[in-house]
Write a structure and sequence with these properties.
With about 475 residues, the protein is of the alpha/beta class. It contains 13 helices and 18 strands.
């Protein structure tokens, strides 16, 4: 394998090894600072980042607003405070080595305000901003305003072309790189388009070559592509290094930094990473964002799958095929199902899933009374962590709603990601992971449960590991 050479990234020559940003307290200033100190690009998450008191103790994010709008304002204030705290921690640890990036999700609630707030309060401490989960047209404008580089996350040449033509050509000098994230292999939210088959993955090489052609046509021949999603070892991409079809390239690691000593996740989570097998990560569409996402199969995810399977079409009154009346609840409320669906519903009710909840698609899902109460409470407690939420029907528009019925087939992403980041419960919360996570189990680097420091991992990656 050709030896990696340093690349000019965000104003400095650094190793082309980038820590992938993972939200809600998982990519922190501690991990990002250590990655930068090792000579690479550390990335802390600006999504609901943690902050601390004068003694270094975590301050819980407790929402007191009575309305969703009031709680949304609290969330934005928390986000700015947390992101600023993590930027300062990262820079203290890095000691001026490497680069520090911040990752934000364009579809997170209040993204633009939080991004600008952090860049204002942590001025000079953030060298670049990576951003995906949507089409972040204003990312370039905001980055240029604060003199930081921007790194859009895309999954196709077509997505980059749209961003470039509409907005990015105006701020070419601040485009530090383009992150290509494999939509079939990446952890967290994935950029699959409606015309791509989630069950038929495509190889990244030709898609990145198409992206490079698009970038070259825009005069971006020296701007690196950052390969992300499914990146485990640099040696897996040996034929990309020095390849003119790919051009300057860096590699982003999202899953592997989870298993380091600086990683803030629980010991239970770290142990689970070493036990996973191929197929233990599910690409699904339960996320309240509406995007596909990838997470470890556990009780939480299995419940979502089962909940969605306990689902039938219905009508409020008899019409067409819907002739079978189903009465439920103590008040004997009725809906009308297709005759072939009524026995299914009756069986679910007999098994304890007695509460039918309506979805936006004129279907019913059947859940236990306990699950029903939990879903309704979490929908009511919504604090607007997304720009638009399928689960609660919140939107940050003037109406404060998507205009659609809240969807009980989804979940409160804020609650579950906060829980898994700050507790040891890895079975009943959403555990994001990339599809190559099973390689922890067979990679000799992790023999006998070895957990490296970030510095040891970066040194190992530089050797092709």
């Amino acid at each position: 394998m050709k030896a990696l050479q340093k690349l000019w990234i965000s104003g400095k020559d650094v190793w082309p090894l980038v820590e992938g940003g993972k939200g809600i307290g998982v990519s922190t200033g501690a991990s990002a600072g250590a990655w930068a100190a090792a000579g690479g690009v550390g990335t802390f998450s600006g999504v609901n980042a943690d902050f601390y008191d004068e003694n270094g103790r975590l301050i819980p994010m407790i929402y007191t607003g009575k309305t969703r709008g009031e709680r949304h304002e609290e969330l934005i204030a928390f986000g700015i405070r947390g992101g600023t705290a993590q930027a300062r921690i990262a820079n203290d640890i890095s000691g001026g080595a490497g680069r520090i990036h911040m990752n934000v999700m364009w579809e997170m609630g209040g993204c633009e305000r939080i991004l600008e707030g952090i860049l204002t309060q942590a001025r000079g401490l953030v060298h670049g901003v990576t951003c995906g989960a949507g089409m972040p047209y204003r990312l370039a404008e905001i980055a240029a305003k604060y003199g930081v580089y921007y790194y859009p996350i895309v999954s196709s040449a077509r997505a980059f072309r749209a961003l470039w033509k509409r907005a990015y050509h105006k701020s070419k000098e601040w485009l530090g790189g383009v992150v290509y994230e494999d939509p079939w292999l990446a952890g967290g939210h994935n950029g699959l388009s409606n015309n791509e088959n989630p069950r038929s993955p495509e190889a990244p090489y030709p898609r990145v070559v198409d992206l490079r052609r698009e970038m070259n046509a825009a005069g971006l021949t020296d701007t690196p592509v950052v390969m992300a999603g499914g990146v485990w070892s640099v040696s897996d991409f040996a034929d990309w290094i020095g390849n003119p079809e790919i051009g300057p390239v860096a590699f982003q690691f999202g899953t592997r930094p989870l298993l380091t000593r600086e990683s803030p996740i629980s010991d239970e989570w770290k142990t689970r990473l070493l036990e996973l097998n191929p197929g233990d990560v599910l690409l699904h569409r339960f996320s309240p964002t509406g995007f596909y996402s990838s997470a470890v199969r556990n009780a939480f995810l299995n419940d979502l799958v089962a909940r969605s399977e306990r689902q039938v079409d219905f009508r409020a009154a008899a019409e067409g095929e819907f002739t079978a009346e189903l009465a439920f609840g103590r008040r004997g409320r009725s809906v009308f199902l297709k005759p072939e669906d009524k026995p299914k519903a009756e069986a679910w009710i007999a098994e304890g899933d007695t509460e039918p909840l309506k979805t936006p698609d004129e279907t019913l899902v059947f859940v236990t009374p306990e699950t029903s109460r939990r879903i309704l409470k979490e929908q009511t407690d919504c604090m607007g962590c997304l720009s638009a939420c399928n689960f609660s029907n919140w939107s940050q528009n003037e109406e404060g709603t998507t205009g659609r019925r809240a969807d009980p087939r989804s979940f409160c992403i804020q609650k579950t990601l906060q829980s898994i980041a700050h507790t040891g419960d890895i079975e009943h919360e959403l555990m994001f992971a990339g599809h190559n996570v099973f390689r922890f189990k067979s990679d000799p680097f992790y023999r006998n449960g070895f957990v490296p420091t970030v510095k040891e991992l970066v040194e190992h990656l530089l050797k092709g590991g």
